[in-house]
Each structure stands twice: as structure tokens, then as C-alpha cells.
Amino acid sequence: MMRIAIIGFGNIGKYLAEWICNDPSYDLRYVVARKEIENTNLTNQPIQFRKEITSDLINDVDIIIECANKDVVTQLLKFPELDRAGLKLVIISTGGLYENKVTLQKLKNCEVILPVGAIAGLDAIKAVNDEISSVKLETTKHPKSLEGAPFFNNSKIDLLFINTKQTIWEGKVSEAVKQFPKNINVAASIYFASKCEDLLIKIIADPNTKSNMHEITCEGDFGKIYTRTENKPSPNNPKTSFLAVKSVVSILKNMNSNIKIN
Which sequence positions are flagged as catalytic? Predict the structure, then answer.
């Protein structure tokens, strides 16, 4: 039985915790959340609820699932205890990995796993990443899904007054993860699959859309890959696509399957 710690207990963390508790292959040992945990049926489970990540917690589990934010990823990567054989680190806030690329490269023993999250096509992009000449990501979301992004602190754009489809930002992945840390983890995931520093990103706000849409165009000597993924926002958090939650469940299922699709 593999022992698991979940870091972050928002919409994704709660879903995963309930799923893990119902699977006999896994033992949910810890949940780390800074806020008080309320309104959950997990309080009767033999789970240790912590407010901080600690060395003893890391040493006591086989799998760590991060579903908090990129700052927590930065904090987590500072623990030397992470780098041990057999430990699997599942990171949802891939923007945090992008901002800590140097530290990430120093990890030699643990396995870092990136869920496909809210997009399709990462497997194909990774397969041809030595032949890519350009990669573009166009993300379309409802203005409400973009609320709270640091970009708007210094922007003249007011999301409340957007009444038609509008491009609000274009740039590279290095800026995207800073300006839209909770909205554009997909960009960092594409970077790790493609190894393309010149990944170009366009973010569109559309008040008439009912989905979070990500369109990827990848070209090179191999040909062209184009994917479009339209996700329904998670019911409890419009910033999160439900597919992102399910992709972590898929990783856990894959660990116990003798047929693996990578």
C-alpha cells in the first residue's frame, strides 16, 4: 500500500482525498492545509492534518501530490529529503517548477510527475521535442476565471466591463507564470514537454464562453501538431478545469495498471 500526502486542500485536494480514501491501494497519511479544514467527511479517517510541510512528513510517504500554488512548490523543493529513490512527486502547479528549474535539475533520485492537466497532446509534443521549431498556446477563458491574476494589478483592463471576445495578454512562458499563476500552468507543462523557451502564449477573455479552451499549435521537421481542449470549469472553482483533477486520478490509476499509456 502506497502512502500519500496531499499538499493543498482546495477543490482539487478535496476531490483527490476522497478518491484516495476509497481506493484500497493507497493510504492517505497526511493533508497539509494552512486553513482550518471544515465541511469534510474525512475527519473520521486516520489522516494527519498539518498546517506545514515538514521533513518527517516527506520521509513517511511514497507519493506527494501538490495541489496548492506555485509558492508552495518553491517551498517544497527546498527540502533535501525530497531527493530520495522511490519518492514520487506529483506537481499540479507546474508554473512553480518552471520558476525553480535550476533546483529541479538537481533532483537526481525522486520521480517528478507532471499531470497532463487541462490539455491534450503533451505526449506527442514530448516525443518530438528535439525537432520542434515553434510552439504556440492560445487560451480562452471567461473573464471570471481570470479574476485575481497579478496582471490586472497594473493593467487598465477591467474584467467586469469585457462584453466581447478580447485578447488581453500575449507573451512568453516566463512572464505568463508570473502574471497568471493560477490560470496558465498549462504553459509551463507545455514548456517541460517541448523544451521550447520561445513558447508563445495568447490569453483571451470571452464573456460568452462556457469552457476553458486551450489550443496548441506545435510545428517542426516532424510536421504539425494541433490540439484543442475545451474543459468545463470545476463547479467549485472556475479557475480550475475538471480535467486537471481527473488527470491526477489517472496518474494514480496508471501506477497500478500493467497497461500504461504514456
Answer: 214
Domains within the chain, CATH numbers bracketed: 2-113 (3.40.50.720), 122-239 (3.30.360.10)
Residue-averaged pLDDT of the chain? 91
Percent of residues, the chain, with pLDDT higher than 90: 76
Please provide residue 196's backbone torsions phi and psi, each rounded to the nearest 5 degrees: -100, 110
Nearest to 15 by CA among 257, 262, 261, 241: 241
259 pLDDT tier (thresholds 50, 70, 90): confident
Question: Which grid coordinates belong to 104?
Answer: 529541479
Helix axes 11-21, 242-255, angle to 10 degrees: 30
Distance CA 8, CA 32 (A): 6
- Quick one: pLDDT at residue 223? 97
Read off the pLDDT of each residue in 24-43 and give the average, rounded to a whole number. Answer: 82
**CA distance to 38, 80, 115, 183, per residue, from 188 (Å):** 32, 24, 11, 11
Looking at residue 110, the DSSP 8-state letter turns out to be: S
Determine how β-strand 88-91 pairs with β-strand 111-113: parallel
**What whole-number distance in Å separates Cα of residue 170 and Cα of residue 137?**
10
Whether 182 has a pLDDT exceeding 90, the answer reads no
DSSP state of 36: P
Within 13 Å, how many C-alpha atoms sit on residue 9's CB side?
A: 22
